[in-house]
Amino acid sequence: MANDQNKPAGPQPVNDQQAPGEAPYDQAAEASLAESLGLSEEGLIDTDGGQTDARDVRIAELEEQVAHLKDQALRALADAENLRRRTEREKEQWRKFASADLAKDLLNAVDNLRRALDSAPADRDSLDDAVKNVIVGVEMTEKEVLNAFDKHKIVRINPLGEKFDYNLHQAMFEVEDPSKAPGTVVQVLAPGYVLHDRLLRAAMVGVAKGGKPDDHERVDTTA
């Protein structure tokens, strides 16, 4: 029995890919080493190419973000500029028309001054000195008010003899006047007033109803 135990074992099977004395084949370790060396079964692995592609994608994403932020910044600047301009326009409008309500309240007073002067006799020589002084005082008052109006860009509209304008005039009645072209203002009951480019009050007028047509309305019958 002892002789059998000391007897060398029979020949062992040998791996076709493993030579005697070599370590067992480790396929996973070989693949890891090949990858670290940039090798594969097909040859070189383009590890740098993969990194380059990822870097290009990231750069493109960042460029897109920069473009988006730049667009937002430009829009914000444009909005701020529009707000500034609108605020300036509103301030200018307020400055120009701040006196509009006061001016409207004064219009009737100015009209009454004019009516008082129109009702005064044309020949003042026969009038008492006190009456003359009152008339002169009314004239001076009207002049001062009109000067103040002029200072604040309030312009009186007296359209006698002008073509009727719906934007500036209010027709109170029509008058038969063959000597005037239709639509001509033949009487002004109350003047109008304009503050800058805004109408405070339309002129109240009487308009010619008939008569000779305007030159541009005449028909050429010589043809």
From TrEMBL:
Instruction: Answer whether the UniProt record assigns the keyword Methyltransferase to this protein.
Output: no
A GO molecular function held by the record: protein homodimerization activity
Q: Where in the cell is it found?
A: Cytoplasm
Q: What is its main location?
A: cytoplasm
Lineage top rank: taxon: Bacteria
**Record's GO cellular component, any one?**
cytoplasm
- Which gene produces this protein? grpE
Q: Entry's PROSITE patterns?
A: GRPE
The protein here is known as Protein GrpE
**In which family does this protein belong, per the annotation?**
Belongs to the GrpE family.
Give UniProt keywords alphabetically.
Chaperone, Coiled coil, Cytoplasm, Stress response
Region entry Disordered: which residue ranges?
1-29
Q: What does this protein do?
A: Participates actively in the response to hyperosmotic and heat shock by preventing the aggregation of stress-denatured proteins, in association with DnaK and GrpE. It is the nucleotide exchange factor for DnaK and may function as a thermosensor. Unfolded proteins bind initially to DnaJ; upon interaction with the DnaJ-bound protein, DnaK hydrolyzes its bound ATP, resulting in the formation of a stable complex. GrpE releases ADP from DnaK; ATP binding to DnaK triggers the release of the substrate protein, thus completing the reaction cycle.
Record keyword Ribonucleoprotein present:
no
Q: Which residues form a coiled coil?
A: 59-97
Where exactly are the transmembrane stretches of this chain?
A: none
Biological process (GO) annotations held by this record are: protein folding
Quaternary structure and interacting proteins, as annotated? Homodimer.
Q: PANTHER family in the record, alphabetically?
A: GRPE PROTEIN, GRPE PROTEIN HOMOLOG, MITOCHONDRIAL
